[in-house]
Design goal:
39% of the residues lie in helices and 46% in strands. By secondary structure, the chain is of the alpha+beta class.
């Protein structure tokens, strides 16, 4: 009986560590997404570069595609000027060293010196690289009417 109990407890403890690791990664990805949201409003080149993977593919709802440097320039050169960003209905799905994040992004931004509203859906792929979650791909899409 004691061998069965030891076996059962070892399985339970192993499973508990797995759950904690999953929760920890979920939380780390959510924190990276929040950090990205904030830096899109108040751009900081060091933070933008630290969040982006070297092979980043960043796609706008218009179809414009940018690499890592284009992504950084987008905010640092004022091509995208966000006044506010709200993320809703966010889901995070972990798959090994990758995480798929989906959410709805609403907010206010300046486009060609005109105040505009934005309401789009976002799909992002984050990859854990050297212990840090990096944005590997982002695709924005207009919400069907």
């Amino acid at each position: 009986m004691s061998k069965k109990l030891v076996f059962f407890l070892s399985i339970l403890l192993s499973y508990g560590n797995y759950i904690t690791a999953q929760t920890s990664d979920d939380q780390a990805v959510a924190e990276a997404v929040e950090k990205l949201r904030k830096v899109m409003i108040t751009p900081d080149e060091v933070i933008l570069k630290s969040l982006a993977a070297d092979d980043l593919v960043y796609v706008h709802s218009s179809g414009t595609v940018r690499n890592k440097q284009g992504f950084v320039d987008e905010f640092m050169k004022g091509w995208s000027v966000f006044k506010s960003i709200k993320l809703e209905n966010q889901s995070i799905t972990l798959a090994g060293d990758a995480a798929v994040v989906r959410h709805r992004l609403t907010g206010d931004f300046l486009h060609n010196n005109i105040d505009e509203k934005i309401d789009i859906i976002i799909l992002m792929v984050w990859q854990k690289q050297q212990g840090q979650w990096k944005l590997l791909a982002r695709q924005a899409a207009k919400i069907p009417k």
